[in-house]
Amino acid sequence: MAATPRPLRTSSPLPPYRAVLAVDAEGYTRNSAFHQQVLSTAIPEALEEAFRRSGLEEVWSERRFPQSAGDGYVVGVEPEHLPFLVHPMLGHLQDALEDDQSRLAAHERELRLRLRVALDVGPLPDGGGAGPGPVGIGRAMNDVHRLLDAAPLRDELRASDRDITYLAAIVSRGVYEEAVVGRFVGLNPRRFRRVEVRHPDKGFTQEGYLYVPLPSRSSGAPGAQAAERKAEAAPAPAPEPEPEPGPGAPEPPSGQGAAPGGVRMGDNHGQAVLGGTLQGGMHGDFRGRGRG
């Protein structure tokens, strides 16, 4: 029997490059089922508003492979728009989330929509109107979700004030080097902080770059608590000693003590003693009052 010839190896066209943006809501499952629905609806609405404020309405309307997962959202766009997704879009998304907070609080006072955001770029098929086929499947889609679930990103958002900072973002090394360091993004590269993203169970180790449009620090964060404890433990400053009267200085008249700093209270009628100096134009008896 004749052997079946082996098929010739053939190449395949590279899918078009797409910038991919993924977001995920902090603490989503801690909310009731009803409030999860509220947040799930609010996520794409906040994104659409941020795109609109950034002048990217058309980019939003032509977005590729949009996917909603209840607690998150993924969208792809043409790669030339990538710098604008970093700036100004992330800043406008922070503003849109803050502006929507009063509406969410009307449902429940403690309800918050705070997002983790990740950005990457790479070849991702989007169908292109050519019928059924794999859409949004590729390395960039996998990696953006690994970045989105990075411990440093979670910690960054958790350590911030929940009533000030509504999002924390991370971009891949490729996005950072090509768009940020390449100065296509209108932000100083020093606004980004390098971190290492590790997912040992998935064999994933990669560097990412954190960016927070409106940084803050929660009073409950470990660093803030340590600073508060240090301040509480610091000894109170010792009171300044009163200067000794010079040789031959007359004793104060009976009933008239010396104010701090050696100023005699009986000699300053119509003046106030502030910090050991005389300030005119104020009347009244300030004897017996300590310095504020």
Task: Walk me through this protein's architecture.
The chain has 292 residues and is an alpha+beta fold. The protein folds into two domains: 205 residues, Nucleotide cyclase, GGDEF domain (Alpha-Beta Plaits, 2-Layer Sandwich), CATH 3.30.70.1230; 28 residues, no CATH class. The chain is built from nine helices and eleven strands. The strands form three sheets. Strands 2-3-1-4-5-7-6 form a seven-stranded mixed sheet, sandwiched between helices. Strands 8-9 form a two-stranded antiparallel ribbon. A hairpin with a 3-residue loop joins strand 8 and strand 9. The longest helix has 21 residues. The C terminus is likely disordered.
What separation lies between the terminal Cα atoms? 106 Å
Give helix and strand order, one letter per element, not per position. Answer: EHHEEHHHEHHEHEEHEEEE
Radius of gyration in whole Å, from Cα? Answer: 31 Å
Shape: globular
Query: How many separate domains make up the residues?
Result: 2
Helical fraction = 25-40%
Strands, total number: 11
Low-confidence stretches: 223-234, 252-292
Question: Summary?
Answer:
The protein has two domains: 17-221, Alpha-Beta Plaits (2-Layer Sandwich); 259-286, no CATH class. Helices cover 30% and strands 21% of the residues.
Task: List the main descriptive attributes of the protein structure presented here.
single chain, 292 residues, alpha+beta, Alpha-Beta Plaits, seven-stranded mixed sheet, two-stranded antiparallel sheet, 9 helices, 11 strands, 30% helix, disordered C terminus
